[in-house]
Design brief:
By secondary structure, this protein is an all-alpha fold. The protein is built from 2 helices and no strands.
Length: about 60
């Protein structure tokens, strides 16, 4: 039972941290969501799922 409560508390803290980060950041946007910032997509030559930018391009949004 203690493990479940601890897990719920830690999950709540993580979600609260993300929410606070969104409130504090300008325009409430996550940073690093574009393919140019993702090393996994860069090596594959894929495109960003959000804006469609290729790794060598700047974010289109």
């Amino acid at each position: 039972m203690k493990t479940i409560i601890l897990s719920i508390v830690l999950l709540a803290l993580a979600i609260a941290g993300i929410a606070i980060k969104l409130l504090v950041k300008k325009n409430g946007k996550f940073s690093g969501t574009c393919s140019s910032n993702n090393p996994l997509i860069q090596s594959d030559g894929g495109t960003c799922g959000i804006c469609g930018a290729k790794p060598e391009e700047k974010c289109k949004s």
